[in-house]
Amino acid sequence: MIHSYEHKVQYYETDQMGIVHHSNYIRWFEEARINLMDQMGISYQKMEEMGIISPVLSVEADFLRMVRFGGNVLIRAIVTEYNSIKLAVSYQVIDKSTNMVHCKGVTRHCFLNEKGRPISLKKSYPRLHELFEQEYQKGKQLEEKKQESDNSKNHSEAES
């Protein structure tokens, strides 16, 4: 399922030209990921209290258009990969007034115990695993529907 997180662009997030500095998109991704987990019923704080941490392994961001001071953006987050040990979340930063995508990105994470060792949520925390797995399956279904829609549009255009 796609979850949206709304953010109003603050002055301190911009450079001298009033354009959002690229580093802030990564912060927005994190805000959206935490919001996604809250909506899934998994508080990141509770995970940490259980002794689970989920560090970032990699971040990708493609900047398509500028976002400016005072704008409102929606950051859509979706679980696109999950195998009980690793997780990937994809993001779209969308201008709320135009509905145009300004940035796309992905963060990849793993799950570690308090000693910094990899853990399998499926084995160690089956309830958490179930919640992540359900979200991943919802995301796969949405992606398949989008793919079908794109294919039918392309097919219709080819016939024209």
Name a few traits of the molecule.
160 residues; alpha+beta; Thiol Ester Dehydrase, Chain A; five-stranded antiparallel beta sheet; 5 strands; 39% helix
Describe the fold and architecture:
The chain is of the alpha+beta class and 160 residues long. The chain has one domain (3-159): Hotdog Thioesterase (Thiol Ester Dehydrase, Chain A), CATH 3.10.129. It has helices at residues 23-40, 44-49, 121-124, 126-159; strands at 3-8, 56-63, 72-82, 86-95, 101-110. The chain has a five-stranded antiparallel β-sheet. A hairpin with a 5-residue loop joins β4 (86-95) and β5. It is globular and about 45 Å long. The two termini are 33 Å apart. The model has no long low-confidence stretch (mean pLDDT 92).
Rg over CA atoms: 18 Å
Question: What would the principal axes of the Cα set say about the shape?
Answer: globular
Q: What is the helix content?
A: 25-40%
Number of strands: 5
H/I helix tally: 4
Task: Tell me briefly what this model is.
With 160 residues, the chain is α+β, with helices and mostly antiparallel strands. Helices cover 39% and strands 28% of the residues.
Task: Describe the protein's topology.
Layout: E1 3-8, H1 23-40, H2 44-49, E2 56-63, E3 72-82, E4 86-95, E5 101-110, H3 121-124, H4 126-159
Antiparallel strand pairs: 1-3, 2-5, 3-4, 4-5
